Amino acid sequence: MKELVKQLAAEQKEAIREDRHYLHQHPELSFEEYETSKWIKNRLTELGIPMEEGITGTSVVGVIEGKEPGPTIAFRADFDALPVDEENDLPFKSLVPGVMHACGHDTHCATLMNFAAILVRHPELVKGKVKLIFQAAEEKLPGGAVQMVADGVMKDVDCAFAFHSAAAVELGKVQVNDGAVTAAVGTYELKIIGKGGHGSTPSDAINPMPIACMVGTAINQIKPEKISPIHGTTVTVSYIHGGQYPNIIPGECVLGGNIRVLDNDDIPIIMNNIEKIARGICEAWGAECEFSSVIGYPATINAAEPTAIVRSVVEELGYEPIRTNPSLGAEDFSYFTLEKPSCFYNVGGANPDIPATYSPHHSKTFMLDEDMLDIALECEIGVYLKATGQA
Ligand SMILES: [Zn+2]
Ligand SMILES: [Zn+2]
Q1: 119 and 51 belong to one structural domain
Q2: Is residue 275 over pLDDT 90?
Q3: Is 258 helix (H, G, I), strand (E, B) or coil?
Q4: Are 285 and 303 in the same domain?
Q5: Which of 188, 297, 335, 345 is catalytic?
Q6: Is 297 designated active site?
Q7: What are the tens digits of pLDDT across the range 121-137?
């Protein structure tokens, strides 16, 4: 397999860089990727790849059908950029002030497009159906994936794969984790309503400030008391806003924070406990409480079989599969993983000779060694061959 895959990827060596440079120069924000969406549609049309109907917004799905029967395998690439002003001195630096591909989604999109080009040039490799999922808006809630799932994109899919480029992971290393890869996220806010008054007569008032302190302390007990100690969880009190003057007891204050869990079932447990505990403490002190929450992306959970495929492909191609602790960051590929067995992996793009390739994602100096494009492309080809029993 190794030789065939390397040869197929080598055919795209220049094209994949050209595509990535174009995308990098023309970044667009989440849900506003109109030109990128047009570019994807034009390229698919040029390649003679039909597109699925009924896809909402700027997302695009290309479908390649083989002559021989086989499974339907999906590959997903997100393609939105971020409100970041690029500081890198690159010949293909962003041409849009204040917008930058600072998370590497340009590399995801370029890789998937070149994978598609290979399959079109080598139709004998296509067994069954390949779905090319170009997904808008990964970076901004509610994300593009949830709508694609609602549009029915995953209905006929047997198995889905996606990769993320990873700054600070060395070139040649690919993070492939079993189970949870990224966290489920949520935010909450509590408005504590007491009774304002003069600092000299606290017994005539209901001071929401010490109540908020008690609620905040109690929230910190939810993780140790209500969540299994082996689950990866954070429950944070991130802000308490209230009061303004030493001798004024304020009438109300607001407290809020964020939750990240690696087990999707823990989100409702935590949210319910925050609300219950806050209401209980407020009631004890005669205050009222309003609770609100926003649930973000679910946790991304890799399934055993596709994960084993990715790991063995990485090894066979001569790269190093590594296991790491799951990230408590969020990723909306999770919506696809909830539908069908899937695998999300990270392709390293850091080069020890180029310190900038260790800049964090979402920073003005985020940079990848472009040789990660070849590795990412090889992995997609290898994974496809293995998933269809051709390797
Ligand atoms: Zn990002
Ligand atoms: Zn990203």
Answers
A1: yes
A2: yes
A3: strand
A4: no
A5: 297
A6: yes
A7: 999 999 999 999 999 99
| Angle, CA of 157, 141 and 334, to the nearest 5° | 30
Are residues 136 and 32 part of one domain?
A: yes
Last residue of a domain, one of 295, 315, 340: 295
Q: Are residues 165 and 188 located together in one domain of the fold? A: no
Return the number of other C-beta atoms located less than 10 Å from residue 66's C-beta: 16
For ligand 1, the distance from its centroid to the CA atom of residue 298, given in whole angstroms, is: 16
Model pLDDT for residues 352-388, shown as the tens digit of each residue = 999 999 999 999 999 999 999 999 999 999 999 999 9
Domain that holds residue 39: 2-181+299-387
**Cα(105) to centroid(ligand 2), Å:** 6
Query: Which of the listed residues 255, 273, 295 is the one where a domain comes to its end?
Result: 295
Tell me, yes or no, whether 36 and 160 share the same domain. yes
How far is the centre of ligand 1, averaged over its atoms, from the C-alpha of 380 (Å)?
21
- N- to C-terminal Cα distance for the chain? 6
How many Å is the Cα radius of gyration of the chain?
24
290 given a catalytic annotation: no
Residues 123 and 170 both lie in one domain:
yes
Tokens 């970076």 sit on residue: 139
362 CA from centroid of ligand 1 (Å)? 6
Please identify which of the residues 33, 52, 331, 370 carries the catalytic annotation: 370
